[in-house]
Design brief:
This protein is α/β, with parallel strands linked by helices. It is built from 8 helices and 7 strands; from the N terminus they run βαβαβαβαβαβαβαα. The chain has a single domain, classed as Rossmann fold, CATH 3.40.50.720. A 7-stranded parallel sheet has the order 3-2-1-4-5-6-7, sandwiched between helices.
Length: about 250
């Protein structure tokens, strides 16, 4: 699919990977980019950069009425970037309750699903278009240290495959981005190499242009996939050791 002259909506587009997507889409020739954010004022800097091409809108993807309002206001969308995500850094068993895991599932799975459902008819009317779901290497291998985040990304990855099948007949391209470690606020606690958000956005645009179903966006994602193929049990043990190391470093 061509990016030039497209109209895109980026959820969580006010910072991090979402902000990088907005800029990449504009640079690639998108005619308009709708920036979804819980607080539209947080995207004011992007509107100021291209006031004739960028529009900020209030969008909490866990609130059905706001998703419906976004669909009603953005009937010209041909590319949907489901980037909004939540990582609350709570364990599944050690946490006081399951509220964090529930919220991560609400945002990372149900919110993404609601956006796909709301915009599928719009994309169909425009000839098919594209959906890009920003997922995680934690959706390929279970990461105990991520608590409910990893299970929610597993669910998002499975849903992406199901949605791709459902929308195939209307010509909608559905891509999953498998993201490793990126230099964003969400990954501030992560040590080691982190990829710039702009690189992830460019990988996403390549997936759109080339019709790629699932794309590993960075070195960590590639390494996780390779380890999963080579020795999945060893990788599982490695993920468990990360949990114990984290517990020691934080005093939990």
């Amino acid at each position: 699919m061509r990016i030039e002259d497209s109209v895109a909506l980026v959820t969580g587009g006010n910072r991090g990977i979402g902000e990088a997507f907005v800029r990449a889409l504009l640079a690639a020739g998108a005619r308009r980019v709708h920036v979804g954010a819980r607080d539209p004022a947080s995207a004011a800097h992007l509107v100021a950069e291209a006031p004739d091409r960028v529009r900020a809108l209030e969008l909490d993807i866990t609130r059905p009425e706001q998703v419906a309002a976004a669909a009603a206001a953005c009937g010209d969308v041909s590319i949907l970037i489901n980037n909004a995500g939540a990582f609350l850094n709570r364990r599944l068993i050690a946490a006081d309750d399951i509220s964090a895991a529930r919220e991560e599932m609400e945002v990372n799975y149900f919110g993404m699903l609601q956006m796909c459902r709301a915009f599928a008819p719009i994309l169909a009317r425009g000839g098919g278009g594209a959906i890009v779901n920003v997922l995680s290497s934690g959706g390929m291998v279970a990461v105990p240290a991520m608590g409910g985040y990893s299970p929610s990304k597993f669910a998002g990855r499975a849903a992406t495959t199901c949605i791709r099948a459902e929308l195939a007949d209307q010509g909608t391209q559905v891509s999953a981005l498998i993201v490793g470690s990126v230099d964003t606020r969400m990954a501030a606690h992560v040590a080691g190499r982190k990829e710039p958000p702009a690189d992830i956005a460019q990988a996403g645009l390549n997936a759109i242009r080339r019709g790629i179903d699932e794309l590993d966006t960075d070195q960590m994602a590639l390494e996780v996939r390779a380890s999963l193929q080579r020795d999945p049990k060893a990788l599982e043990r490695g993920m468990a050791r990360m949990l114990k190391a984290d517990q020691v470093s934080t005093g939990r």
